[in-house]
Each structure stands twice: as structure tokens, then as C-alpha cells.
Amino acid sequence: MGQPKNPYQPVKAVIENIIDETPGIKTFVIKPEEAFGFHCGQFAELTVPGVGEGPFAMSSPCHKPEMLEFTIQNVGYMTQRLHKMKKGDVVGVRGPYGNGFPLEKYYGKEVVLLIGGVGFPPARALLYSLLHEKDKFKRLLMCYGARTPQDVVYKYQIEDFRKQIELHMTVDKADESWKETEGVVTVLLDKVNFDLKNAVSVVIGPPIMMKFGTLKLLEKGFKPRDIFLSMERKMYCGIGQCRHCMIDHLFICKDGPVFTYQELKDFPDIWE
Amino acid sequence: MAERYFIGKVQWSTLLGGWMEKYQILAPQKHEGGLFLEPVSMENLSTIVYDAARAVQPLKAFLFPALEEVTGEKAEPEKPWLFLGIKACGLSALPILDQAYGGEFADPHYQKRRQESLIVSSDCSQPWETCFCTLIGGKPYPSEGFDLNLSKVWDGFIVEAGSARGKALLEGHDEVLKEVVKEEAEALDKMRKETVSKIEKQNKEYRLPADLQKLMAGSWESDVWKVHSETCVECGACNHACPTCHCYFLDDVTRKEFVKLRGWDACQYSGYAVTAGGGTPRPHLYERFRNRYFCKIKYLFENYNRLGCTGCGRCIEGCQGRIDMRAALNDLTK
After folding, report:
1. Which residues of A touch B101 (CB under 8 A)?
2. pLDDT, tens digit, for every residue of B186-200?
3. Between chain A's N and C termini, which has fewer beta carbons within 10 Å?
4. What is the C-alpha to C-alpha distance for residues B64 and B66, in angstroms, rounded to an integer?
5. A132 lies in the same domain as A178
6. Alpha carbon distances (Å) from B288 to B54, B262, B294
């Protein structure tokens, strides 16, 4: 037996590539010094050395663990510094943490992804996994909403995804270039039908979108146990110690981040 | 019957002097403002306050210091600690910290200190006004979680071994360890009963149900949170003084690459749960105030099967706003 692993120590990782997704969102492709096997829906603590750390879901395929991708919005102190980093710079990574999506529970079913804004990155990891064993699912459908056409991430992959799944898109505020729906993401649910007896839904996005998305799915007839939510809150440790991410007695980092609505619905203030 | 002996005070001090070589002994010393756990040397050996009440510092202050570097190799600590005079309300916090810092992602720093240190607890006999262990199902004397426990009886102690390491401490000292005679055992029982009565008496205006979880279940919307948080200045003293509170932040504040500091955080701070985007589940003071009570009584209990309150009264003692947890909980019953 060696020394027990220090759970606070990040592994170094080189930034291999940076993709500009939108004016405020970049995808960082990093290569960790050590193997980083993960399951889709899990997340990692990403360190900007000497600056800080934050939790982000991997957006790359989990069956290709040698290279990790994170799609990150420039929104706070740490992400602002991250956005200034360049190819070849070194970041740190701890993880993977959390439970991930229970894919086996989706086998044989219609899988409906309801995704808002930068909820797409964890959803993309899920999509890759679903497509990796596509035959096991009855139907794959994704409803994606962004604020404006400029805010759509992975534009260069949209057509490819559209060939493999049913993809519906909307923006809150369209411009002349936009050929698809205008309106909040929940309006897309009115355009499609599901076999409710045999469907599950996955909701990922900003809190307000997750709230109204879930309410809409309930209205459509989805059962609370069939609605899977990838939750987010302030987080430091990622390992069930620091208690910042709690919803009631549940650790988003350790018991989640993926919960069914059934598991959370009786707790107050889950959407805040 | 547990393994216990009577030992005279002078003989005990001699034993203690012998352990100093191997352990850094920390014991309560009286100063203005209370009892403080301090390093023991031959100079202050005679002024250790064994019985009395709990010290100002909770044990977490040593096992999980307020600010420390958690990455990289750590300098080996001098000597393992031997904590003296820890009270039952301090011991009962440890199973929570042990579980929180154990398991799959165990904190190697906490674990090392915890495993290497020894705890020689003692009975409480002069509770502070803020003490309320009996109100929430505790006792002012330890029954588990110690290596040795000392109960002051006449001019000596009844010493009880609570672990193999505790027994080992006593090995080879048969000549000073006497059989506990009936009168000593009776004096111990009497002292314990008297302390229980003292604590019950000073808390007689409060009545709490045995099932505190049930009390909390119906209290989310109660006015108690707003009323009792009126004088809160969000200093976080209740969190920091609490023996079971263990929330922390991690930061690269040294600005050195890959060096992380861990520091105590407090759920009473307005920025505690604020995300980079500015959202927080508890924007109002009363919500943060309520969170502490729910964490103590419901969340920690569900996580670690232990009440997060040991009745030590440190949160009451440390509060600038004179907020009293007993009164707040009591008002929930009305």
C-alpha cells in the first residue's frame, strides 16, 4: 500500500486546444498527465493555477478519457482567468466526481433531452454515450434552447447531431439568420409527442430553465421519477465534505449531480 | 464493568510528566474568559483544570485548523497530541468529523492527526451557564469515544480506559493504580448526578421533544427564524465555535501554482453559497440562520446518524447578538 491519495491535489493537464464557441464561451481541450476515466454526467474540479478552482462537467465522450473537453462560460473570477489562457498552458484537474447519468435506466426507452444554454456541455457527453450504444434506446430526442443564435454552442456539430437524433432548437430572441423556433425552450415540448409510458427526460440548464422545464414535463405527463435533473450549486471540494452544494441533506457533488425530480421534489428551494 | 482504577493526583501528574516526552499534551488552563486548551509543560502541569467544563476551543481547531495548506507534502508534525480534559460534548462531535473526513475521499491530514492523537477526557462538574447537553439527550460525562477518562474524586481521579491505546498508556503503572473502593464509586455517582441536576436546573425554562427531527419537519415556514435572527450580525462565530461545523472553502490564495489552502467557512455569511453567476439559495439572513438549525438537527443527522448539536453552548457564548439556540428551538415547540 502506498500513501493514501490526497483528494485535494489536482493532476496537471496541458491545454491542447481552445475552441471559441460564442463570444463568452470557449471549449478547452486538455490532456491530463494521468488517466481520467469517467462516466457521462460526472464532473471535475478544474484549477487555474494560482487563481482558483471550479466544478465543470466534461463535455467530451467518456469512452475517450485520454483527452477531456470542458465548455466554459466566462462568468466569474476564475473563468475570466481561464479564458485568458492559451494552448500549451497548464491547468489542474481533480475528479471525476459525482454519479453521472444512469444510462441503463434509459435502455429501451424514448430519451428526451431538455437542454438550455451551457447545459449543452454535459448533455453532449450524454449524447456521445447514448449514440455510442444507440440501438439500446427506442428514440433519442433533444430540445435545445439558447438566448440568441450567437449563444448556440457546438454550431459546427449541430448538423451532424441532427443526422443521428431528433433535434429541435429555439432561441429566446431570433434574428434574420434564424430558421428555427423562437421562444423559451419549453415551447419545443409542445411540438413533439412522446410515448409517456416508455419515456424518460433529462433536464440540464440554468436554474430558472430547469424549474420551468421540469414543470412543463410534469404538465406533459412525465412522472417525477422519469425526470432526471443535473443540478448545480456553489461547490468547493466536489467530494462531499465542504457542504456548500447541499440540497437539504443531499450532496450535489456526491449524491448527484444527477437526481430524479422524485428525489428532490419535497425539498424547498431546490431551484435557487 | 469497564476497566477503571483510582489514582492520586500527584501520581497522575507523574504519569503525565512521563508522557510528555512522547506526546504534545494539550490541557485546559484557566484564563479570563474561560478555559483554554494549551500546551502542557512542567511549569503549568499543576494548574491544569481537569473537571470544571469544556474549553473555549473545540477539538476541530486542532484536528482541522482554521486555515491550512492541504496540497503537497506536509512537514511531519513534532509529536502526536494528547488532549486532556475534553468533555463529553467534545467527544460526541468527533463521529461527525470522522465520517465527514473519512470514506472514499478521506482527508489524509485530518485522519493522520486523529489517528495519532490520544484523548483523555474528563467529567464535567461546573457547567457554564450556556451548557445544555442534557436538554438534547446528552450527558455531562463521557461514556464512549475516549482513550482514558478521568473523573475527579476527592484528591485524585477514577481513571477509566476506553480503548486499547488507553489501556496501553496505563500499562506498567500498576503500583499507582488502585482498585476503586465503594466510597469512591459512590462519590463519582453523586458528582455525576449533581452535575446533571445543575444543567437541568439552568435549562428548566426550555422544553424540547425527544424527537428533534420531527420538531424541525414542521418548522420551515416558522416565524422563529426571522424573530431570532433579528440581532444576528453574520459574524459566523456560531459556526466557527461549533464542534461539529466543518464547512470549508478551498482557494489558491497563496497565488503559488497548485497550492491550495483550506479554511473554515460559515453558512451564516451572505457569500457562502453564492455562485460565480451571482445566484444563491439563501439570499436572506433568516434563511441562512434557518440553515444552521436544519443542518445541526436534520441534515447532519441524516448524513452521519448523529445530532450536529452537542449542547456545548459555544454558539450561545460566542454570539454578539445574544442569540440563544435553546430559546429558538424552544419557541419552535410553541
Report:
1. 241
2. 999 999 999 999 999
3. N
4. 7
5. yes
6. 27, 22, 10
Reported ipTM = 0.94
Question: In chain B, which residues have their Cβ closer than 8 Å to the Cβ of A54?
Answer: 276
Structure letter (DSSP) for residue A240: S
Q: Which residues of B touch A239 (CB under 8 A)?
A: 104-105
* Domain end point (choices A97, A127, A149): A97
Q: Which triple of cell numbers denotes residue B43?
A: 511549569
Residue A271 belongs to a domain: no
Q: Which residues of A touch B103 (CB under 8 A)?
A: 240
Residue A1 lies in a domain: no
CB contact under 8 A, A75 and B104: no
CB contact under 8 A, B250 and A8: yes
Q: Does one domain contain both A92 and A134?
A: no
A37 touching B (Cβ < 8 Å): no
Nearest to A75 among B70, B276, B282 (CB): B276
How far is residue A152's CA from residue B85's CA, in Å, rounded to a whole number?
A: 63
Of A48, A236, A248, the CB nearest to B248: A236
* Mutual angle of helices A155-164 and A120-132, in 10-degree steps: 40
Instruction: Please check whether residue A237 touches B, CB under 8 A.
Output: yes
Q: In the 8-state DSSP scheme, what is residue B178?
A: B
Q: Give the whole-angstrom CA distance, residue A150 versus residue B190.
A: 78
Q: Do A109 and A173 share a domain, yes or no?
A: yes
Render pLDDT for B28-80 as a digit per residue (tens, 0 to 9): 999 988 999 999 999 999 999 998 999 999 999 999 999 999 997 776 668 99
Angle (CA) A132-A135-A141 rounded to 5° is 80
Q: Which amino acid is at B90?
A: G
Residues 6+ apart with CB under 8 A from A9: A94, B71, B72, B258, B260
- Tens of pLDDT along A182-197? 999 999 999 999 999 9
Which of A94, A237, A251, A264 is the mutation pick for testing B, counting most B CBs within 10 A? Answer: A237
B71·A6 Cβ contact <8 A: yes
Of the candidates B91, B123, B121, B119, the residue with the CA atom closest to the CA atom of residue B187: B123
Of B249, B255, B258, Cβ closest to residue A10: B258
Residue A52, pLDDT > 80, answer yes
Phi, psi of A83 (to 5 degrees): -65, -20
Cβ atoms of A94 and A11 within 8 Å: the answer is: yes
CA A184 – CA B245 distance, rounded (Å): 42
Domain count, chain A: 2
Q: Specify whether the CB–CB gap between A30 and A102 falls below 8 A.
A: no
In a domain, A251, yes or no: no
Residue in B with minimal Cα distance to A249: B299
Candidates B255, B265, B143, B129; CA nearest to B202 is B129
Of the partner residues B108, B251, B300, the one whose CB lies closest to the CB of residue A4: B108
The three cell numbers locating residue A19:
475552441
Query: What domain range includes position A29?
Result: 11-97
Is A244 within 8 Å of B247 when comparing Cβ atoms?
Answer: yes
Confidence of residue A2 (pLDDT cuts 50, 70, 90): very low
Same structural domain, A129 and A149: yes
* C-alpha to C-alpha distance for A184 and A204, rounded to whole angstroms: 14
Give yes or no for residue A255 having a pLDDT over 60: yes
